[in-house]
Every structure is written in structure tokens, then in C-alpha cells.
Amino acid sequence: MQTMDDNSSLQAKLKETQLAHQRALQMAQFQAGFLARTSHELRSPLSRLISLHQLIINGLCENPAEEKEFINQAYEAGLNLMKLLDEIVNVSKAVYGSNPLKIESLFLGKILQETQELTKIVAANRNFSLNFATVDPDIQILADHSRLIQALITLIETAIANTEVGAIEVSWDVVTTSKRINIVIDTPANSQAWSEAIDLMANQTPTAEEITTKTISQLSNIKLSPAMK
Length: 229
Known about the structure:
Layout lengths: L3 H54 L6 H33 L6 E5 H18 L3 E4 L7 E5 H17 L5 E9 L4 E7 L11 H5 L5 H5 L17
Parallel strand pairs: 2-4
Antiparallel strand pairs: 1-3, 4-5
Helix pairs in contact: 1-2, 3-4
């Protein structure tokens, strides 16, 4: 016959198993969504990198100074691409446990304040209004400090990059039923990449042929000389 201690131990183990299963499902969903969104973001610097090299290889630079400028722009696109790849590697390490999360008690107000300090210059350079909601100083959350900050910065910078004008509002709300806090980044951008189904996004990656057939006038964020426009 099982004792009450045995029953309590079994219930505790069952609860731990259920929580572990739930965390695994949440991590799998996060990984799938993150990789889909990041893959979408990879297209921009990769397409720009290829297009800039095409201009140089085909001798379309007006002078050596313009060729050097294109090389510099390609270098910046390469750095941006590497940054995104590093984020994918970090997520993969977290999932497989080789780079475990450091979960600790954090004050939500300090997290948002730090995020605001790290993103306000980027927003100011684009003439954006970046507004953070006031947070009760006593509210605490359980999270990995560096990963949470990195995720918030990435989301805000992506929103800025995909928004031409307007304001970005960062707010939060408490889900009392699950004891969770949602951090909401509200932007006027038409960010389809954040809401599309994963299988639809997988079909949006252009082929090399599609990239190479773009006309020079359609290449985004590339400064061309008057003779080439």
C-alpha cells in the first residue's frame, strides 16, 4: 500500500514532468517562429550583398570612389548577416542545452529601462518616437537577463527597420490566469513577417535567379550615382 508520502512524491514528479513538457512545447514553438522570422530577415542583407557585388563585378561603378562605397555597403550587409546568424546559433544552443538559460528574478521596470537606453539612439537616428509604458517598480519576472534584453532589442530594431514613420509603443500586461507577463511592441508597420504562418513564409525565399533579375533601380538602400539612375 502506498503511503501519503509516496502519493505526494508521485504528484510532485508528475507536476515537474508536466511543467517540463510545457516548457519544451513553448521552446519548440518559439524556435520555429524565431527561425521563420529570422529567415525572412536574412533575405534583406543577403540580397543586398549579392546585388552590390553584381554592380562591382559587372563594372557598373562610375569611378573608384563609388566602387569603394559599394564595397563598404556590402561589408556592412555582411556584418548584419553575421549578426542574424549568431542569433540563430544562440537559440539553437539554448534549445539543446549547450548554452543553458540563466533564469533569475528580475525587475521588469529595470529591464524595460535598459532596453530603452540601448534602442533610443537607433530610434532617434530614424526620427522615431519610442515610448515605454510606466512599470510598477515592485513587479518582478523570471527570465534570462541577457537573452531577454537581446530579444527585446532585436524586435524593436526590426520594427524600426520596417517602419517609415510613426511611433513605437512598448507596453506590458499581466496574465493573471497563467502568472505571466506579456511585453507588447506596438508599431504602425505592416509587418507581415511577424504574423504569417510558418509554412507560408518558407515559400517566400527568392531564388538566386529571382535576385539577379532585379533591375538596379529596384535595389533598396543602395546609393547610385546620377549617371546610373
